[in-house]
Amino acid sequence: MQTYTKYRPFTPIPLPDRTWPGNTITRAPVWCSVDLRDGNQALVTPMNLPEKLEYFHALVSMGFKEIEVGFPSASQPEYDILRTLIEGGHIPPDVHIQVLVQAREHLIRKTFEAVAGASNVIIHFYNSTSTLQRKVVFEKDMQGIIDIALEGARLVRQLADEHAGGGMNIRFEYSPESFSGTEGDFAVEICRQVMQALRATPGDPVILNLPSTVEMCTPNTYADQIEYFIRRLPNRDAAIISLHPHNDRGTGVACAELGLLAGADRVEGTLFGNGERTGNLDLVTVALNMHTQGIDAGLDFSNIDALRALYERTTKMRVPERQPYAGKLAFTAFSGSHQDAINKGRQYMARTGSPTWEIPYLPIDPADVGRAYEPVVRINSQSGKGGSAYILATVFGYHMPKTMHPEFGAIVQAACEQKGDELSPNEVLALFQKAYLEIDGPWKLLRYAFFEEASAHTEAGGVSHFSGTLTRGGTETPLDGRGNGPIDAFCNALDQAGIRGYAFLDYHEHAISQGSNSKALAYIRLKAPDGRVMFGVGVSANINVASVRGILCAINRFEACAGQPREADSAGGR
Questions:
Q1: Contact in structure between 109 and 159 (CB atoms under 8 Å)
Q2: pLDDT tens series, the chain, 574 aa
């Protein structure tokens, strides 16, 4: 069934000389949160008064200076929040509360009654102007729609003048609702006449809010509409051009960003995009997009988890796990190649002290929004060698050498496949400990001592001497060896226990805690007589002992996998 044939394609505005594609966003717009009005009206269970107050204070703390708090003429709860905010002294002197009202006389009068006594108020009145609504809802021609807007504008201006002596600072906002479906020239004309009725001047500008009430076109077409409107609007400097994108086509953020390129000054939206149908513009995403471009958005998202928790508790809505910046999985990488690049980026920044953010796959530093680094890389069967190394390094301080990543990555991947689910950081650590630190035989070191013997014939000025006892199956074997260092001395001594043919390939060590009680972790890479290559790990407060334990760990691991397929030295993960 070809159901698509009943739809008409959107007719774009002809704007061949558009300029917005060559522009760049260099500063943040004026932000206006409409969470408490537009967002609240879309909730299955609207917020109660205490929740609205808590939410309002959170918005103020974030830095919002314009907050639409309700539709006071619509219901008693909407009226009550206004009176509570005003009479309770909740509104800071630099914050404008905004109220919405249809361009109808009795509703406008009720609205002015609700905001009486407020210091800074934006009266936001509107009427729908789109072609479809004129035909279907109002059954009026263009002049009839203009008359509705002008009657509202004149009354708003009159009532504002009457309140002028009471210390109230009243500003005006007009929305040709359904702007996205309104003819461009008609939108300009109705706003021109409303500006005249409001006596707008550059010193007292009116906010002209141009909503994409229903997304009807691609974002570039919306940007064309905004640029077309701005070009043709007389007395442009007496207007603040505001955007109010919805998200019906899933492109609300793009519409806002391209609308700003087209010349808009102000943006209305909600936290996390709550709103009618598919929602409003997500202000969090737009603001943090700017943050990643080196622009001060002027809003505080430094504890985004707490903000998300507040939102979910008060709205009974949920922020999806993959929501940009705020979702629980927004910074999480399961892919092995992604994990490896993130790990290398972290190491690069630590090594170079880079003042700029240079970690692949993370467009923003999670710490900027108060997110911990632990969940950035999560381990499942799709993860690779780099992910496991990242977890051990960032969460537990175990910095495996790069040559060890494939070996341990294969161990982790096998565990993921067996479990059929992701592994937690603690489970990754447990695998590391089981594979390396909990190896307890068959060879065990009972006693040990290291000595330095003076010699005039060695470059280091001395010879290392190891003395100790190994046991296997209850049989003790005394060892005594010398070499040009403690590791060499121990390796030479192993021959006395019949442990021969192992080649020492690589060695790394680091401290895993700080202070006088710190321990050392030694990573030893050996080649067995049969050609296998494998790592052993040792830990001790004494670096020499840690190294010896690492060598024995590798030898014991060789013996444990004797006769198994030779995968340990070649597995690389993804």
A1: yes
A2: 789 899 989 999 999 999 999 999 999 999 999 999 999 999 999 999 999 999 999 999 999 999 999 999 988 999 999 999 999 999 999 999 999 999 999 999 999 999 999 999 999 999 999 888 887 777 788 899 999 999 999 999 999 999 887 789 999 999 999 999 999 999 999 999 999 999 999 999 999 999 999 999 999 999 999 999 999 999 999 999 999 999 999 999 999 999 999 999 999 999 999 999 999 999 999 999 999 999 999 999 999 999 999 999 999 999 999 999 999 989 887 777 887 888 889 889 999 999 999 999 999 999 999 987 656 766 776 666 677 888 888 888 899 998 999 999 899 989 988 888 888 889 999 999 999 999 888 999 888 898 887 655 555 557 889 999 999 988 999 999 998 888 889 989 998 888 988 998 989 999 887 666 688 999 999 999 989 999 999 999 898 999 999 999 999 999 888 655 544 443 333 3
User: Comparing C-alpha atoms, which of 354, 377, 373, 374 is closest to residue 365?
Assistant: 373
Whether residues 223 and 166 share a domain: the answer is: yes
Strands 462-472 and 444-454: antiparallel
Residue 504: inside a domain: no
Phi/psi region, residue 295 (left: phi>0; alpha: psi -120 to 50; beta: rest), is beta
Interaxial angle between packed helices 76-87 and 105-114, expressed in degrees from 0 to 180 and rounded to the nearest 10: 30
Split into its structural domains, the chain has a count of 3
- Looking at the DSSP assignment, which residues form a beta bridge with residue 68? 98
Of 416, 437, 458, the residue that ends a domain is 437
Spatial distance between the Cα atoms of 345 and 35, rounded to a whole number of angstroms: 38
CA-to-CA dists, residue 451 to 444, 481, 490, angstroms: 21, 10, 11
Pair 413, 308 in one domain: no
Task: Give the residue among 502, 500, 494, 509 at the shortest CA–CA distance from 533.
Answer: 502
Q: Please report the DSSP string for 435-461 in residue order.
A: IIIT---SSEEEEEEEEEEE-SSSTTS
Sign of the torsion formed by the C-alpha atoms of 194, 197, 202 and 206: negative
Check whether residue 82 and residue 120 sit in a common domain.
Answer: yes
Is 523 a domain residue?
Answer: no
- Whole domain around residue 49: which residue ranges? 3-15+30-315
**Same domain membership, residue 362 and residue 214:** no
Which run of H or E residues covers position 174?
strand 169-177
CA dihedral 415, 420, 423, 428 (to 10 degrees): 0
| Helix (H) or strand (E) run with residue 123 in it | strand 120-128
